[in-house]
């Protein structure tokens, strides 16, 4: 990890030094502190980011994160970043974009989030939901938000239809880590008016112990976003196998409302379901409903409040929880 | 002045002619004449300003400062009530979304200008302006696509992204062709203004709008916030 981070930093510096005329790199820092009524857990986290152009259409991005929680068995606040109580390199990549005749052609190399479904950090961590969807949490036999790839990514198409493909190795940062091996991830996205629809496929190594988890993990997914007049409806559906002889089906639907008259308030709601099918008693079926709000108090300071109702397995999910967090972000 | 009055009379006559043609259009089928006359009227309405500009246009240079230090991204504009209104369909300018930031940070446009908001990031953005000025919410759109907003009335619009809290920009729509935005050294140049007394206004991010008077005898316009 340390060696990789050093190499990535050197690459970033070399690229930056070689492009004196490029626009400056932006530095950003975010800090979050939160408390949940579920087991009275508290958490704090910070992320440092550097991003910008280091040459014509060459974009670089580097991000490090640190987070800690008083109870790592509770998934509160883990929407897109791990809480392992140690600094970690998250994404570190360089990307070259070409725009031949209005088309899109991009090549990315480095370490980046697994491009499966709705995967960008800003789609999961800034939007007001303080927990990841069940199907995107570490250890729930699905595709975690803390899964990263270390490899090369190609995107090609036109703005209305793009295809993205990745070949790499797992570089996960959460509480579970996939075994090393070759990953293949593909995603297609179509856009028409207020609708963005995507279909994804991944073939990767399981994160479970090889003593009982044989074969490879393989998932397909659908995602949809509809955005109109300040109302955004989005969701994902995932279906596949975390390893041979098992099956995971999960989905979530988010509603985010930010209309004129609501000022700094974005209202949120989520319903979700996740089923892991295997021989009893190891199977599980969890459901969760969330309502909440994100309030932009001043431009860099946001309050996020989530009220959660959970049911089904795993056993930790029962009853209700209130999560509250403040996030402060500065940029230079 | 007489020339301007004469032109305005001709302009009014042409507009009356257009209305008359509307009423008799169905009888005499003179549709082809109507756009020609309308174009002529618009051209005539712009003639006084154009003529004035040609005859004695000047560039007004100045510096914007806060507490004596140069300030970037200050918007300075001159009142020009005698000029004709901007055409309903004006030029297009771009407020880019790249590297999780709006560029430029401050944009000044004339009322009637359409601003394009292209997304040049791989992630989605959701551009909105709710408080004052132009109110809109552009929703989500992917890399390589763009959505337009027509700024059809004067005022300041504060532009944000509902996904990225650090993305912010300002669009100041002004009802005059004479405006400029200060550079890093606080310098600005308002091009093509007729040499006469002006009431000027200035605004900067985080500051109040200030106003003052400027006469051609003054060499440069000094805009100072305390």
Q: Mind sketching the topology for me?
A:
The complex is a heterodimer of chains A (about 325) and B (about 230).
Chain A: H1 2-17, E1 26-36, E2 41-55, E3 58-69, E4 88-98, E5 104-113, H2 121-125, E6 148-158, E7 161-170, E8 183-192, E9 195-204, E10 217-228, E11 231-241, E12 247-257, E13 265-277, E14 284-298, E15 301-312, E16 319-331
Antiparallel strand pairs in A: 1-2, 1-16, 2-3, 3-4, 4-5, 5-6, 6-7, 7-8, 8-9, 9-10, 10-11, 11-12, 12-13, 13-14, 14-15, 15-16
Chain B: H1 2-28, H2 33-56, E1 58-66, E2 69-70, E3 75-78, E4 92-94, E5 96-98, E6 101-103, E7 106-110, E8 113-118, E9 125-129, E10 136-141, E11 146-151, E12 155-161, E13 168-174, E14 179-181, E15 187-193, E16 198-203, E17 210-214, E18 221-225
Parallel strand pairs in B: 1-18, 4-8, 7-13
Antiparallel strand pairs in B: 1-2, 1-15, 3-14, 3-16, 5-6, 8-11, 9-10, 9-12, 12-13, 16-17
Helix pairs in contact in B: 1-2
Q: If you had to describe this structure to a student in words, what would you say it looks like?
A:
The complex is a heterodimer of chains A (332) and B (226). With 332 residues, chain A is mostly beta strands. Chain A is built from 2 helices and 16 strands. Chain A has a 16-stranded antiparallel β-barrel with strand order 1-2-3-4-5-6-7-8-9-10-11-12-13-14-15-16. In chain A, a hairpin with a 5-residue loop joins strand 4 and strand 5. Chain A is globular, with a radius of gyration of 20 Å. Chain B has a 5-stranded mixed beta sheet with strand order 7-13-12-9-10, with no helix packed on it. The relative contact order of chain B is 0.20. About 11% of the residues of chain B have low confidence. At the A-B interface, strand 2, strand 10 and strand 16 of A face strand 10 of B.
């Amino acid at each position: 990890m340390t060696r990789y981070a050093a190499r990535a930093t050197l690459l970033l510096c070399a690229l930056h030094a070689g492009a004196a005329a490029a626009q400056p790199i932006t530095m950003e820092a975010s800090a979050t502190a939160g408390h949940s009524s579920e087991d009275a857990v508290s958490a704090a986290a910070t992320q440092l980011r550097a991003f910008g152009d280091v040459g014509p259409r060459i974009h670089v991005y580097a991000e490090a994160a640190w987070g800690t929680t008083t109870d790592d068995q509770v998934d509160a606040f883990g929407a897109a970043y791990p809480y392992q109580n140690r600094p970690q390199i998250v994404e570190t990549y360089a990307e070259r974009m070409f725009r031949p005749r209005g088309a899109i052609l991009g090549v990315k190399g480095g370490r980046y989030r697994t491009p499966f479904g709705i995967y960008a950090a800003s789609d999961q961590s800034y939007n007001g939901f303080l927990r990841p969807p069940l199907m995107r949490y570490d250890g729930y036999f699905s595709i975690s938000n803390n899964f990263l790839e270390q490899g090369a990514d190609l995107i090609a198409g036109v703005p209305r239809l793009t295809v993205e493909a990745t070949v790499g190795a797992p570089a996960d940062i959460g509480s579970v880590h996939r075994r090393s091996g070759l990953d293949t991830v593909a995603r297609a996205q179509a856009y028409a008016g207020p609708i963005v629809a995507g279909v994804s496929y991944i073939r990767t190594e399981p994160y479970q112990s090889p003593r009982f988890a044989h074969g490879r993990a393989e998932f397909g997914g659908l995602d949809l976003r509809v955005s109109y007049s300040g109302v955004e409806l989005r969701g994902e559906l995932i279906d596949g196998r975390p390893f041979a002889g098992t099956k995971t089906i999960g989905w979530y639907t988010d509603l985010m409302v930010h209309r004129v008259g609501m000022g700094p308030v974005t209202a949120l709601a989520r319903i979700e379901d996740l089923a892991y099918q295997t021989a009893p008693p190891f199977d599980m079926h969890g459901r969760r409903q969330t309502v909440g709000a994100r309030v932009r108090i001043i431009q860099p300071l946001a309050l996020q409040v989530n009220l959660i109702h959970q049911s089904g397995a795993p056993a930790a999910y029962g009853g209700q929880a209130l999560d509250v967090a403040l996030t402060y972000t500065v940029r230079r | 002045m007489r020339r301007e009055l004469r032109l305005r009379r001709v302009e009014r006559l042409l507009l009356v002619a257009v209305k008359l043609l509307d009423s008799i259009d169905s009888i005499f089928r003179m549709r082809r004449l109507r756009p020609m006359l309308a174009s002529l009227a618009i051209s005539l309405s712009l003639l006084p300003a154009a003529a004035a500009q040609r005859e004695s246009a000047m560039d007004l240079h100045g510096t914007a400062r806060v507490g004596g230090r140069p300030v970037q991204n200050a918007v300075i504009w001159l009142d020009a009530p005698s000029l004709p209104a901007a055409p309903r369909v004006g030029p297009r300018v771009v407020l880019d979304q790249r590297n999780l930031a709006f560029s430029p940070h401050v944009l000044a446009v004339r009322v009637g200008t359409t601003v394009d908001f292209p997304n040049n990031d791989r992630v989605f953005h959701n551009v909105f302006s709710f408080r004052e000025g132009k109110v809109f919410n552009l929703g989500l759109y992917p890399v390589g696509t763009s959505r337009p907003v027509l700024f059809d009335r004067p005022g300041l619009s504060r532009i944000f992204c509902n996904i990225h809290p650090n993305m912010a920009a300002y669009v100041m729509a002004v009802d005059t062709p004479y405006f400029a935005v200060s550079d890093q050294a606080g310098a600005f140049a308002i091009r093509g203004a007729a040499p006469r007394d002006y009431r000027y206004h200035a605004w900067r991010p985080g500051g109040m709008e200030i106003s003052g008077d400027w006469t051609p005898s003054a060499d440069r316009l000094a805009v100072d916030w305390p």
